[in-house]
Automatic annotation (TrEMBL), chain A:
Domain called 4Fe-4S ferredoxin-type: residue spans: 31-61, 128-159, 160-189
Organism ancestry: Bacteria, Bacillati, Actinomycetota, Actinomycetes, Mycobacteriales
UniProt source species: Dietzia lutea
Chief location category: other
Pfam families cross-referenced by the UniProt entry: Fer4_11, Fer4_4
Localization: Cell envelope
Gene Ontology terms: biological process: cellular respiration; formate oxidation
PROSITE patterns (UniProt xref): 4FE4S_FER_1 (PS00198), 4FE4S_FER_2 (PS51379)
Cofactor: [4Fe-4S] cluster
Protein name: 4Fe-4S ferredoxin
Sequence positions that bind [4Fe-4S] cluster 3: 137, 140, 145, 179
Alphabetized GO MF terms: 4 iron, 4 sulfur cluster binding; metal ion binding
From TrEMBL, chain B:
Gene Ontology cellular component terms for the protein in this record: plasma membrane
Main location: membrane
Domain of life: Bacteria
Keyword terms, alphabetized: Cell membrane, Membrane, Transmembrane, Transmembrane helix
Membrane topology: Multi-pass membrane protein
Sequence segments annotated as region (Disordered): 1-28, 331-354
Name by which UniProt lists this protein: Polysulfide reductase
Compartment annotation: Cell membrane
InterPro entries, per database record: Electron_transfer_protein (IPR052049), NrfD-like (IPR005614)
């Protein structure tokens, strides 16, 4: 009964702290990821580190034909996924102020590292660019997966992140269809692994967080494309970085998921994108499904009353033929 | 998929230009410009649930059971013994099958009882489990009266047969009160998801489902009962069929682009079959009310039509998850309508306006 009552007290929209909203009295600051895709080099260290730390099985060896992306999407055994987008865009003309090297290097016949653009046979700018983005569970403020889970296996932690409790999940798969980002998935595969048949997704390395450590993916990222920390601070940092990029001539640069007024109340993992979200396989305007649950129950109740009334009418008109 | 060529190319400016050019061609006069959208290699954005045919069967059997309990309670009060018996059997059979499919579909069926840890109004699956748990035992007890006379004498002497027989009517009435919820909650189960074709149907789907439940249970009542007891079942079935077909039409119009999957592929075949079977069944039930054979065939057709409706809705939702178009286009329209940005809360509000 207490679960029932606490459920009625939950919020479905607005700017709230998910930990407090879920009954933690004095939670630590909300933690999250800021993924700055402008500095992602597509090395996939995050994918590998995540698998290593969380003991996630392999996805199988399969070439997708989607650029360098053979993991293709987030899923039960892919909690970090690097998207590779090959785009045709007009080449940017190099700025004229770049001065030539003061003295031409003398070729000693030795392999030597050079700065990009220093060597005379450096490639011309082309009408092509890469977009790379390391995607992850969004850890929504109003998480549809948590709302619809019929066993209470999905929950918000004290850090405001969302985790599945493996020992409670019964594998119904309802969270899979609830997630507006297509993140969570039920793991299939060889029996024996205790997580088979159970919903699986990024835990934001809950086990590392409780020890005061950085999640594996952020730790492994060589370019700081994945930044971990207190969400408030990350949002500030992201706003600064966005201004920098827009000034530098990235007109489509945008933050995605940071706004607490969005359909899921802001996400715990948000992104700096260089193009529209759908280009990266992200929904442009996601809304937590349970936002409309009141209206849905109302319609169902109206329909139920219609059926009851119809049945009464069917008998009221007379018993036999 | 006709859009394969488009879907293979990740979003670039080139792709956007190409989709635009098609509309400007001059020769073709399109009423609605082709939906412009970009995607990541055409990969799905939302995930379909890992549900197989089990859940489609579960949707149908739940509706059949709910409608039959109403029919049984009515027949009990109106004094139609054959109708009462058949409807009670169908109700218990339906709900048993429905529960079997529900548990069978779980990734960890041995943990079914974990569903009873909590009751969450935000989770239609949780609410549904409780509705079924409350309804099932009463639907079972209602059958007691029909079973007692069939028991071997030895066993009957050891059981409180008198009590069972007397409990049947009140149990049947309680089951009938819970039955409309059994028939309608499955609509919320589908619409409270991110699958575009399900969530877009959230206003009308409950009415399609209760209409379908009435058509199925009334139809089975027509099939199993003699003419002199089939009046209420006939009216329930025909009324249900009319509601189902009408609500379905309104639903298709309000769904916008996400109605497409309902007309294509497997869902499309089931949807057409549902309309033909339900419509023909209803007409046959009205015209053939003096013929036992025609009534039975019409009843069967409406029950089959009801099943096809559930299958169609099920498969349409699953198909809508596979094509990112159904996620991107409506969401972009919503975003553009309020002038971009993420501020959903302020601009769109809730469902009250709808």
């Amino acid at each position: 009964m207490s679960a029932f009552l606490s459920d009625l007290g939950r919020s479905f929209f607005g700017d709230i702290d998910p930990a407090e909203d879920n009954g933690y009295s004095d939670p630590p600051p909300r933690k999250g990821f800021f993924t700055d895709t402008s500095v992602c080099i597509g090395c996939k260290a995050c994918e590998v580190a995540c698998k290593e730390w969380n003991l996630i099985p392999e996805d199988g060896v399969e070439l997708s034909g989607m650029s360098y992306d053979n993991t293709q999407a987030l899923g039960a055994s892919t909690w970090r996924h690097v998207a590779f987008i090959e785009q045709e865009v007009p080449a940017r003309v190099a700025e004229a102020s770049v001065a030539p090297a003061p003295s031409a290097p003398v070729d000693l016949g030795m392999p030597a590292p050079t700065l990009p653009g220093d060597s005379p046979d450096a490639a011309e700018p082309t009408d092509f660019r890469w977009l790379m983005e390391s995607d992850v569970c969004k850890h929504c403020t109003h998480a549809a997966c948590v709302d619809v889970c019929p066993t209470g296996a999905l929950m918000h932690t004290e850090f405001g992140t969302v985790v599945v409790q493996n020992d409670i999940c019964n594998g119904c798969g309802y969270c899979v269809s609830a997630c507006p980002y297509g993140v969570i998935e039920r793991r299939s595969g060889p029996a024996g692994n205790p997580a088979v048949g159970i919903a699986q997704k990024c835990t934001l390395c809950y086990d590392r967080l409780t020890e005061g450590q950085t999640p594996a993916c952020a730790k492994a990222c060589p370019t700081d494309s994945i930044q971990f920390g207190d969400l408030d601070e990350l949002r500030e940092r992201a706003a600064g970085r966005l201004d920098q990029l827009v000034e530098a001539g990235e007109p489509n640069a945008q933050l995605y998921g940071h706004d607490t007024r969005n359909g899921v109340g802001g996400t715990g993992a948000f992104f700096l994108l260089l193009d529209d979200p759908e280009v990266y396989g992200l929904p442009p305007d996601p809304v937590v499904t349970t936002r409309h649950v009141g209206a849905m129950w109302r319609q169902a109740a109206l329909a139920a009353v219609t059926l009851l009334g119809g049945a009464v009418a069917a008998f009221a008109a007379g018993g036999g033929a | 998929m006709a859009d394969d060529d488009k879907a293979d190319v990740p979003g670039g400016p080139g792709q956007r230009a190409r989709t635009r050019r098609r509309g400007r061609g001059g020769r073709e006069q399109l009423v609605v410009p082709p939906a412009e959208f970009r995607s990541y290699y055409g990969k799905p954005i939302v995930k379909a649930p890992p549900w197989k045919y089990d859940i489609a069967a579960y949707l149908f059997l739940g509706g059949l059971a709910g409608g039959s309990s109403l029919l049984a309670a009515g027949a009990d009060l109106a004094g139609l013994p054959n109708q009462r018996r058949s409807a009670r059997i169908v109700a218990l059979g339906g709900i048993t099958g429905s529960l079997y499919y529900l548990v069978h579909d779980l990734g960890r069926p041995e943990r079914f009882h974990h569903m009873l840890r909590v009751l969450k109004l935000t989770s239609p699956m949780s609410v549904g489990t409780w509705i079924l748990s409350a309804y099932g035992p009463f639907a079972g007890l209602a059958l007691g009266q029909e079973i007692v006379p069939l028991l071997p004498e030895k066993l009957a002497r050891r059981l409180p047969t008198e009590l069972i027989s007397r409990a049947s009517r009140p149990a049947g009435l309680v089951a009938a009160l819970a039955a409309p919820a059994v028939a309608s909650y499955t609509a919320v189960l589908l619409t409270d998801t991110s699958l575009p074709s399900w969530s877009a149907a959230r206003r009308e789907l409950p009415f399609v489902f209760v209409g379908s439940a009435a058509a199925a249970s009334g139809g089975v009542g027509l099939l199993l009962n003699p003419l002199d007891e089939s009046g209420p079942a006939r009216r329930l079935a025909v009324g249900g069929a009319a509601l189902e077909l009408t609500a379905d039409q309104i639903m298709q119009r309000s769904m916008g682009i996400t109605a497409e999957p309902l007309h294509e592929g497997r869902a499309g075949k089931y949807h057409r079959a549902a309309q033909v079977l339900t419509g023909a069944g209803a007409v046959g039930a009205v015209l053939g009310r003096r013929s036992r054979l025609l009534s039975a065939v019409s009843g069967l057709a409406m029950a089959a039509g009801s099943a096809c409706t559930r299958w169609a809705v099920f498969h349409a939702g699953m198909a809508s998850a596979d094509d990112p178009k159904y996620v991107v286009v409506p969401q972009r329209e919503r975003r553009d309508a309020r002038g971009g940005g993420e501020a959903y809360a302020e601009q769109v509000g809730d469902d009250r306006a709808r």
